[in-house]
């Protein structure tokens, strides 16, 4: 561990990698005012001379200015600041992010980004440097969502640098990075689950009665979980003469931040992206919310946990998952039980294959007449049926898929524009809706195909007739003789294949 020698305005740090002088810039109004200015030195004698220069200027010197003063053309001033220094300027400049988001950015910088190239100067940065970092995360097995978040932090930092003159171009603009790409070949199954009305009714009837009302609100309003749990009676906007339909005001969401004691705490803040919206809702949802709001003050929570307060996601998810498993179990084809009746079975449950939830061998005694203990005779808690019966759910939706289902139902209606859907669910821009739900617009695709067919039909009917082929060996016919051939009657349309087969 290195030692530090304090020398007036600057300090000399002896480290295993060498000696450096560190001071804080004393220049009010400068972007780096109050920030550390480190400079590497070859030996302790040089470091003492550098520190004396800093002291003589009372700390009113940037590192690049001092390097230029001491070494002239050997200075690295032209290469600008390092990425670490740029990130220290960028993050405090963010004013429209929540404390949790700020902590997340700081964590990504400190854990992966800065150790990778925090000391690299930004001006000679190349797109290949960013691509190499992305490929390294992908090789480490990180998810595409995690990679996208790290890339976003790097991209925002460089954009801040370009805007403030620290570098000319953003190296991220030269990469071929695809946001949240599914795979290298853009193939793979869709992560989202869009429930059909029948599937939703099956899910709604299978979940616990304690969460059924909230499930109904989520799928009917399309809000996020932390937005729905923040609903209050004052968010219900009754119909008026100008707006004859009831509305729901989505303006708050539960968020996390660090409390005074350093622990995380929940608080009511703005919605994601600060996208407040007043959405028109159907009368059935309006009546349900009114019923749930009875006896509550205007600023009380409509949905609360079993002991009051915020409705916890983990508590909700346990009951949600249990309901999904119940919907995926067929009464005629139940999942196979783990235990079997064996009269002379000996040993413990684990000796016959019984495992705990942690995957370790179960040490309980066998139930008389069975090869498993009482806990492991029935089918596993999350086991589902393998049949293809229509009355059974065959997919595993998450609570967030209720929001996706709401969007899918809206986009199935050709009268609902994607712009309205984007505003209804609180997306920042229409491009977000188009990127996530572009494949859910069958009505739009059908209309596009119909428009192309109509245009082709007009083009075919307006096409000029073909001139008859005239052999060069035969005598040329007169215009009167060719008159009937130059304007042939249109050929009758062939019936479709299905009609011919019929």
UniProtKB/TrEMBL annotation:
PANTHER family: PROPHAGE INTEGRASE, PROPHAGE INTEGRASE INTS-RELATED. This is Core-binding (CB) domain-containing protein. Gene3D superfamilies: 1.10.150.130, Intergrase catalytic core. Belongs to the 'phage' integrase family. It comes from the Bacteria. Residues 81-162 form the Core-binding (CB) domain. Keywords: DNA integration, DNA recombination, DNA-binding. Residues 454-477 have a biased composition (Low complexity). It holds the Pfam family Phage_int_SAM_3. It comes from Winogradskya humida. Residues 454-502 are annotated as: Disordered.
């Amino acid at each position: 561990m290195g030692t530090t020698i304090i020398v007036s305005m600057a300090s000399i740090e002896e480290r295993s990698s060498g000696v450096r002088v560190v001071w804080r810039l004393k220049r009010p109004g400068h972007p780096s005012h109050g920030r550390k200015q480190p400079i590497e030195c070859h030996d302790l004698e040089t470091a003492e001379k550098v520190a004396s220069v800093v002291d003589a200027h009372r700390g009113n010197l940037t590192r690049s200015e001092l390097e230029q003063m001491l070494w002239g053309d050997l200075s690295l001033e032209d290469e600008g600041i390092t990425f670490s220094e740029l990130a220290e300027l960028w993050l405090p400049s963010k004013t429209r992010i929540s404390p949790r988001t700020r902590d997340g950015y700081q964590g990504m910088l400190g854990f992966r980004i800065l150790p990778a190239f925090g000391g690299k100067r930004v001006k000679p940065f190349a797109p290949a440097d960013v691509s190499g970092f992305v490929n390294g995360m992908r090789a480490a097995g990180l998810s595409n969502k995690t990679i996208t978040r790290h890339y976003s932090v790097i991209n925002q930092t460089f954009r801040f640098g370009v805007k403030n003159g620290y570098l000319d171009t953003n190296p991220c603009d030269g990469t071929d990075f695809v946001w949240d790409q599914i795979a290298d070949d853009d193939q793979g199954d869709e992560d989202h689950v869009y429930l059909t009305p029948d599937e939703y009714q099956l899910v709604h009837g299978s979940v616990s009665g304690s969460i059924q009302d909230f499930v109904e609100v989520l799928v009917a309003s399309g809000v996020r979980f932390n937005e729905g749990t923040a609903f209050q009676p004052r968010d219900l906007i009754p119909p008026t003469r100008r707006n004859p339909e009831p509305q729901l005001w989505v303006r708050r969401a539960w968020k996390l931040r660090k409390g005074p004691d350093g622990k995380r705490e929940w608080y009511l803040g703005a919605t994601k992206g600060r996208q407040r919206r007043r959405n028109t809702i159907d009368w059935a949802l309006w009546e349900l919310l009114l019923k749930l709001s009875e006896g509550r003050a205007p600023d009380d929570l409509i949905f609360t946990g079993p002991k009051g307060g915020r409705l916890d996601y983990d508590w909700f998810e346990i009951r949600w998952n249990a309901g999904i498993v119940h919907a995926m179990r067929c009464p005629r084809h139940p999942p196979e039980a783990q235990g079997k009746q064996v009269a002379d079975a000996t040993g413990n449950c684990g000796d016959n294959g019984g495992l705990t939830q942690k995957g370790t061998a179960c040490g309980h005694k066998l139930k008389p007449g069975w090869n498993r203990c009482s806990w492991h005779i029935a089918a596993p808690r999350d086991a589902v049926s393998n049949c293809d019966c229509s009355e059974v759910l065959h997919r595993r939706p998450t609570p967030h898929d209720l929001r996706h289902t709401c969007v899918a139902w809206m986009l199935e209606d050709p009268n609902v524009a994607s712009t309205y859907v984007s505003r209804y669910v609180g997306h920042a821009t229409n491009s977000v809706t188009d990127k996530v739900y572009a494949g859910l617009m069958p009505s739009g695709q059908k209309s596009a195909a119909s428009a192309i067919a109509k245009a082709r039909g007009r083009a075919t009917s307006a096409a000029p007739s073909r001139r008859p082929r005239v052999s060069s060996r035969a005598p040329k016919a007169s215009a009167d003789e060719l008159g009937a051939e130059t304007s042939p009657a249109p050929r009758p349309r062939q019936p479709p294949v299905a009609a011919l087969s019929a």
